[in-house]
Specification:
heterodimer; A: Glutathione S-transferase Yfyf (Class Pi), Chain A, domain 2; 13 helices; B: 214 residues; mainly alpha; globular
């Protein structure tokens, strides 16, 4: 299946391991993922703050590019990008007048609302690939089998639920299914959809540390050996400043590796440590790579 | 225990048109549907850790017309944009978008030429606004963000030149980790086609927005 891929700014370098491992598992699952050419930033929430109309215009440009390059599906792994793409697509479909205004911003491009379906890579795995097909690729004796892991969704993956329309915003379960497929257990994790605050990371660090620390300590309390995320900003908050965050809430002395769901599946499929970019994670997941002793 | 005097608000000074000002902006349309059930505040992660932000309170203040109090408060800048309140709201008020509208009005009014009407942004507001601005400038410059440039300039100028940059030491472990793991892009993303078109979009959007306001 041919799928257009919108990487977004941070996936090229800041979260290169996410990019790398996504490509690897897409290849394994028979998805032909191709980066759309000439893409630009989606603006996240920051451009929208000062220039609401321009923010929509630059997102529409990406959609127009995907349409020009003949992709029906446009997948992104950054949840903020996915939210922007879905939101603008929906807005243009619903409101013809607004669609004309947004289209008039682009000089020589035109986007027909609804011709491209933006979708998060997780949703693509659930709806277009299916759990059975993923299960067939997993090796039974992989190093994660028999361990305990929790899934952490954060905000944009499931919220706002009327726009994203992916999973139950209170208790999303697909990432838990993925962890189970790999052979690990999933203890009940109450902080699954609580925000880590990463959008304010550079503005209000103490707040973010408190929010993040609560999540990490709670994961430890329920007995998790690793946390699975689907957002590079969550990874930056949970992984990149883990030590300070735990210190801020007085959680004691421990480390807990944070994996992307693509890395989780890659480990399950027996892909190498290097090809999944696991060395780039801040907290080294090396101790997860040895099979569990029974 | 020290009892703080409650600051009372004189209703005669209320700006009754404030709510309409918010409703007229894109994203603020649903403001008047709020029936003060407080679902937003109970689910807000920022209110949960004891900061000033209280979504229900802010909506009430906007409806009453406490224009200056709301726009100069630090609470509107503490929102992390997680959409919990939007999702739980039984009336579909979409508070996350309302906060965006309030921030936009605050920034616009901070540049008001009339000195009596000018809004003084809180410290938190100045920081967040500065970050948003650097982000947008980076998108304008390169067609996408180039993190070293954006974050570097934010540290340099957003927090006051030149000693503001010292705050970077708070993030030193993260930055060193990034450099060691080759996660920093040393060269700017040189995609001229995207750059040109993005700049054209910004230019046109600005013109349209001005036409609407006038």
């Amino acid at each position: 299946m041919k799928v257009g891929y919108y990487p977004g700014c941070s996936l090229h370098k800041v979260a290169k391991e996410y990019n790398k491992s996504t490509y690897k598992i897409a290849e394994k699952l028979g998805l032909e993922m191709e980066e759309i050419k000439d893409w630009n930033c989606c603006g996240a929430l920051e451009v929208e703050a000062g220039n609401p109309l321009a923010a929509k215009g630059i997102v529409a440009r990406n959609l127009a590019l995907a349409e020009e390059q003949n992709f029906d599906l446009l997948t992104a792994v950054c949840p903020a990008c996915t939210y922007q793409l879905i939101n603008v697509n929906r807005m243009m479909e619903e409101d013809k007048q607004k669609a004309d205004v947004i289209n008039s911003l682009m000089d020589n491009r035109n986007y027909t609302p609804g011709s491209v379906k933006p979708i998060h890579f997780l949703q693509l795995l659930r709806d277009k690939v299916g759990l059975e097909k993923i299960k067939a690729q997993i090796l039974p004796g992989n190093p994660l089998a028999g361990r305990k892991g929790v899934s952490y969704y954060g905000c944009f993956c499931v919220r706002p639920s009327d726009i994203i329309q992916f999973e139950d915003p209170d208790n999303p379960t697909f990432m838990d299914d993925l962890i189970n497929v790999v052979g690990a257990e999933t203890p009940h994790f109450p902080m699954k959809t609580k925000c880590c605050g990463a959008t304010q990371l550079l503005v209000a660090k103490p707040t973010v540390e408190t929010l993040t620390g609560n999540i990490i300590v709670n994961a430890k309390e329920v007995g998790a050996e690793f946390i699975v995320v689907a957002c590079q900003m969550c990874a930056l908050a949970l992984d990149g400043q883990q030590k300070q965050a735990i210190k801020r809430v007085g959680g004691g002395d421990f480390k807990i590796p944070v994996l992307y769901f693509s890395q989780l599946l890659g480990i399950g499929m027996g892909l190498s440590y290097k090809s999944l970019g696991l060395g780039s994670n801040y907290v080294s997941p090396k101790k997860l790579m040895k099979p569990v002793k029974v | 225990m020290i009892f703080m005097a409650i600051k009372t608000f004189n209703l005669n000074t209320a700006d009754l048109n404030f709510k309409n000002e918010v409703v007229a902006e894109e994203g603020g349309e649903h403001l008047k549907k709020c029936f003060q059930c407080s679902s937003c505040t109970l689910t807000c992660p920022v209110a949960d850790v004891g900061l000033d932000l209280n979504p229900r309170n802010i909506i009430r203040q906007v409806l009453i017309g406490m224009r200056k109090e709301v726009l100069e408060s630090k609470a509107i800048w503490q929102c992390v944009g997680c959409f919990e309140c939007t999702d739980r709201c039984p009336q579909n008020v979409r508070f996350t978008e309302i906060i965006e509208v309030l921030r936009r009005i605050a920034v616009r009014e901070s540049k008001n030429k009339d000195k009596n009407k000018r809004i003084r942004l809180s410290k938190e507001g100045k920081l967040k606004h500065s970050f948003d601005k650097r982000f947008t400038e980076s998108v304008w410059l390169w067609g996408r963000t180039w993190e070293p440039e954006m974050i570097g300039r934010y540290f340099m100028y957003g927090r006051g030149f030149p000693f503001g940059a010292l705050v970077g030491f708070k993030y030193i472990s993260m930055i060193v980790g990034m450099i060691v793991k080759f996660k920093i892009e040393f060269f700017p993303p040189w995609n001229s086609k995207a750059r040109k078109e993005v700049r054209a979009i910004f230019k046109k959007a600005k013109r349209i927005e001005q036409e609407i306001r006038v």
